[in-house]
Amino acid sequence: MKSILTLLLAVTWLASAGKGFPAPLIVGSELDFPPFALQNSQGEADGYSVDLIKAVAEVMGLAIKFRIGPWQEIRSALERGEIDLLPLVAYSKERDQVFDFTVPHTTFHDAIFIRRADASKFPLNPLNTKEVIVMQADFSHDYVTSIGIPKERIFFTKTNPEAMRLLASGQHDYVIMPKLMGLLIIKAFNLSNLQAFGGPIEAYQRDFCFAVTQGNAKLIALLNDGLSIIKATGKYDEIYKKWFDIVDPHGIPLAMVVRYVGMAVLLLLTFLGAAFAWSFSLKRQVAQRTYDLQQEILERQQAQAALQKAKELAEQAQQEADQANHAKSVFLATMSHELRTPLNGILGYAQILNADNSLTHHQHDSIRVIRRCGEYLLTLINDILDISKIEAGRVELYPVEFYLENFISEINELFKMRASQKGLTFLYESFSPLPVVIRADEKRLRQILLNLLSNAVKFTSQGQVTFKMGVVANNEAMTKIRFQVADTGIGIAEADLNKIFQPFQQVGDFKYYSEGTGLGLSLTHRLISLMGGQLWVESTLGKGSVFWTELEFHVVTERGTAQFSNKEIRGFTIPVNSPLCKRKTTLDGKLEKCKILVVDDIENNRAVLVNFLTPLGFEVIEANDGQEGVAKAYHCHPDLIFMDLRMPMMSGLEVLQQIRKIQELQTIPVIIVSASVFDKHRHDSLSAGCTDFIEKPVDKSMLLERLQTYLGIEWIYQEWGLPTEPAISLEGLSHQQAKILHELAEMGDVIGILKYLEELEKTVTPSFIEKIRQWTDELDTQKICKLIEPKLHS
Ligand code: ADP
To answer: What's the whole-number mean pLDDT along residues 296-323?
Structure first.
């Protein structure tokens, strides 16, 4: 404990010690005030107070120098600032006005000394009646004055020993001085006729301090620290013992003991009180913190429970939503399957009949209408499905290569028809040459355009619908095409513009609400995003709207790759080196027919494939259920199998499993043809070992592509390039007429052309007039120029 204190004090000291006192401090020391201060035989300052200040100076690193002199002199020297400190000055309020004091380092009580001979008759209160000797300017002087002893009874000496000697010689009546000092003087000077009278004067004690000139707080602080250190290290006790042990036979006065013990007890009590208060407050703090923590834990537990509950509720809601979603998906899948199956028949036959050259033009037109209506119906079914798929985030793109012009003109034909049914003009305009073949998800692109155009027609009761498109940016492999649909319809209020892309949002005139679902634009918008584009709209209420988007596509430059959408394939060849050729070549060098097995429980579906594949030169074998499929596969060894997924008794995947068990059929391509629209079925089929998966209704070009891929065959075309229009006869068109028409067409003078046609009707063929009128309606005057060009040079 002691050493810790020492350390602490030393640290405090280190922070300030020595600084500011580089020169030695001058310490005044009394000439003759033993044992407190005296001059020894070598003429040096000595005594109790000298040892004290030396010890303090040492621990505080202060240099000191002594100036010895009588009390009066050194006291006034300190007042004048000639010396820096006095180590032994009893504290009083008056002195405090003049000096600055450290804490008391030693406390003594004064006592009355008398001659032994007077002891019996010395009055109890001698102070007013007897003559007293005191040291001049000493504390005792102040004391006797303060208790009212008349001046004439006070006698002064310069030092305390002198006072005692005077008393011993029989002069005056008593002396007042510190008790310890008096006893010491009696002993030192052998003044045995003197004695202390009574105990120490309780009311009058001397608190000896170090005193410095006023305003030197730093020095006071240093001295105080030094005193604390020497007390803590035991040095102080050592000094005290050295000077007072032998001369204080009575030991430390009781009052002092009481006082110090009292102080110690007080200190202890204070400490205990503080400790108790501290521990109480600590206890309270701990209790408060414990309570807070408990509250916190409770709150956390409650929050956790609430969270758990919310989680359970969310999970339950999610489960319910999943179940509902699943039920919806099952319903949609079933419904779509049921609708797609008959549609497959309608569309398939429409495609087959369309390729039949023996039909008349009119029949072809009718078939095309059947096909278009079928496709429209299919689009509707798909829309509903797409919404559910988009909601589930499961829409994927399937890009194929196709002829853009064919694609666009089919759409144009459909909308020309729809617009004319409503008495609207439909205008198509391409503002730049278009790429011949692009790679895109044809179905989705059609869906986007059909939707925008349907809306334009639906929300317009007079005027026109204009479909414009053209290339806006080009690089080697990619082309960015802008599609724009404008109408002169009811328009959309500005406040509604941000609503229309939200699902189920219908705005404006109520009468149109029943004609739609409010899903079209939402679907279109999402599909466009999926293709990497954006859908924009500008509209003025009552005047019309413009919707447009810009989409980027791969341009297919190699003509042959886009072969599948035209109708000119007439058959195929098997490359000589292909494995198929080797397998098909019989011993006598002939090539066997390529065999395709079609497994489907619905006759119509089989018929579509049979009628499509047979004219191309395949031998098609049919099986109307799974079992028959396995048996026929085993016996006939087909080169490729098309198989339905959902069949009674045995599903397509079960058939597949059986087939894969037959060694010769382990690697044969098996293509699942299904009306199912779910990616899960596609995924399951592929992981079960089928080679590919195509959707019903079967797209002819997709089928051709798959056949080429999996059989390694090469298609034979009747002729390359775009499908040609039936030749238009220029018969009856003179060079002059051709020139006029060409000029009008070059100028884009549509009205001029139509007027001039009336004149031409007399000479040229009706089919020529009809075609020119059609192109004029479509504003495709370039085609007119191209058609009549040969006549210009004739
Ligand atoms: P709907 O099935 O009603 O056509 P859409 O999602 O396609 O649904 O369109 C949402 C709404 O946006 C329509 O109900 C209509 O109020 C408005 N809208 C869409 N296209 C047009 C247009 N060309 N002219 C005016 N309003 C349109």
So the answer is: 86
